[in-house]
């Protein structure tokens, strides 16, 4: 799925906002160890600044330019989801 945004707030778990074929699917918690989490934030920093998707208002979200993709594990409609890996799209 495409990573279209992130929500990071002090004292709360970080979350990536995911879309599949342009359709918002939900959020997934970021549970990586420090080094991989920092690699994700470095890639996020390079892609921030996109406008929020039409009709999707999320408080304290940073919206990303296209190109970052993630693999998530989830139960149903990204409920209880966690990000398992990420990479740049081709």
Task: Give me the secondary-structure topology.
Layout (H helix, E strand, L loop, with lengths): L1 E6 L7 E6 L2 E8 L3 H14 L13 E3 L4 E6 L8 E7 L2
Parallel strand pairs: 3-6
Antiparallel strand pairs: 1-2, 1-4, 2-3, 5-6
| Structure annotation, total helices | 1
Helicity level: 10-25%
Largest sheet features: 6 strands, mixed
Order of helices and strands: EEEHEEE
How many β-strand stretches? 6
Provide mean pLDDT, rounded: 89
Low-confidence stretches: none
The total number of structural domains is 1
Radius of gyration, rounded? 12 Å
* Arrangement of strands in the largest sheet: 4-1-2-3-6-5
CA-based shape: globular
Structural class: alpha+beta
Kindly, what is the distance between the CA atoms of the first and last residues, rounded to a whole number of angstroms? 13 Å
User: What proportion strand?
Assistant: 35-45%
Task: Tell me what you see in this structure.
The chain has 90 residues and is an alpha+beta fold. It is built from 1 helix and 6 strands; from the N terminus they run βββαβββ. It has one helix at residues 34-47, and strands spanning 2-7, 15-20, 23-30, 61-63, 68-73, 82-88. Strands 4-1-2-3-6-5 form a 6-stranded mixed β-sheet. A hairpin with a 7-residue loop joins strand 1 and strand 2. The chain is globular. 22% of the residues are buried.
Concise structural overview:
With 90 residues, the chain is α+β, with helices and mostly antiparallel strands. It is 16% helix and 40% strand.
Defining key terms:
90 residues; alpha+beta; 16% helix; 40% strand
């Amino acid at each position: 799925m495409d990573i279209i945004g992130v929500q990071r707030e002090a004292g709360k778990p970080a979350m990536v906002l995911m879309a599949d074929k342009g359709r918002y699917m939900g959020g997934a918690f970021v549970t990586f160890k420090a080094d991989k989490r920092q690699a994700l934030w470095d890639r996020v920093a390079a892609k921030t600044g996109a406008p929020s998707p039409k009709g999707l208002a999320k408080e304290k979200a940073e919206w990303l330019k296209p190109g970052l993709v993630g693999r998530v594990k989830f139960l149903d409609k990204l409920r209880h989801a966690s990000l398992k890996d990420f990479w740049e799209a081709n």
